[in-house]
From TrEMBL:
Descriptive protein name: N-(5'-phosphoribosyl)anthranilate isomerase
Alphabetical keyword list: Amino-acid biosynthesis, Aromatic amino acid biosynthesis, Isomerase, Tryptophan biosynthesis
EC number: 5.3.1.24
One Pfam family recorded for the sequence: PRAI
Boundaries of every N-(5'phosphoribosyl) anthranilate isomerase (PRAI) domain copy: 4-207
InterPro entries registered for this protein in UniProt: Aldolase_TIM, PRAI_dom, RibuloseP-bd_barrel, TrpF_fam
Listed GO MF terms: phosphoribosylanthranilate isomerase activity
Signal peptide: none
Protein family: Belongs to the TrpF family.
Top-rank EC class of the record's enzyme: isomerase
Reactions accelerated catalytically: N-(5-phospho-beta-D-ribosyl)anthranilate = 1-(2-carboxyphenylamino)-1-deoxy-D-ribulose 5-phosphate
Pathway: Amino-acid biosynthesis; L-tryptophan biosynthesis; L-tryptophan from chorismate: step 3/5
């Protein structure tokens, strides 16, 4: 059984569906280019709908200090997810600035990408092991793209981690079985079109990961 994060939620009823189904994390995207982006005001409203026991994850891509300060002044986040090209030093600085746990994404496509998980494991509180976006991709994540899960077999890192990238209700059980992932993260796999989540798909995904 793996914990579940549903990322890129934009509606209170979808947050409720995710929580009722048993998701332990919900993600709010603060990246304007994303079809899942929310404004700070929208996020403040959505965060108020998240039940106790479900962690509110704010997803940022190479944020500057001002964006983090402005967001956290209005949105009660529990975890900061960094999904850009933040260096290990920047991850440490964001932890200090925000006082929150930081989850750093690392994109994988081949074995040469694996050492980054060790490097970021020294500074981040959690790791998000995602597919590396294709060259020229508009978004650094949330692309519905998976990677060869066999890269992870038998590996251990210094921090708790989540598996992401192209997961769906159909493939998540096999992904967990193969990788031993203690937690999984999904966005596109519970959508009917980019940025449009579907309650039935959310419920099916959480059930399949359990
Ligand atoms: O979801 C986005 O739109 C997004 C935009 C910019 C950076 C990261 C983004 N998503 C990151 C996530 O945490 C996704 O859940 C993860 O990449 C998995 O996405 P998917 O393959 O679509 O399930």
């Amino acid at each position: 059984m793996a914990q579940v994060k549903i990322c890129g939620l934009r509606r209170p009823d979808h947050i409720a569906a995710a929580a009722e189904a048993g998701a332990r994390y919900v993600g709010l995207v603060f990246f304007p280019k994303s079809p899942r982006a929310v404004s700070i005001g929208e996020a403040a409203d959505l965060a108020a709908h998240v039940p106790v026991g479900v962690a509110r994850v704010g997803l940022f891509v190479d944020p500057d200090d001002a964006l983090l300060d402005e967001t956290l002044a209005r949105v009660p986040l529990d975890i900061v997810q960094l999904h850009g090209s933040e260096s290990p030093d920047r991850v440490a600085a964001v932890k200090t600035l925000t006082g929150l746990p930081v989850m750093k994404s690392v994109g994988l496509s081949d074995p040469a990408d694996l050492p980054a998980l060790t490097d970021y494991g020294l500074v981040a509180d959690m790791l998000l092991v995602d597919a590396k976006p294709s060259r020229g991709a508009e978004l650094p994540g949330g692309n519905g793209l998976s990677f060869d899960w066999r890269l992870l077999v038998g590996r251990k890192w210094l921090r708790p981690w989540m598996l992401a990238g192209g997961l769906t209700a159909q493939n998540v059980a096999e992904a967990i079985r193969l990788t031993g992932a203690p937690a999984v993260d999904v966005s596109s796999g519970v959508e009917i079109e980019p940025g449009v989540k579907d309650e039935a798909l959310i419920r099916a995904f959480v059930a399949a990961a359990a």
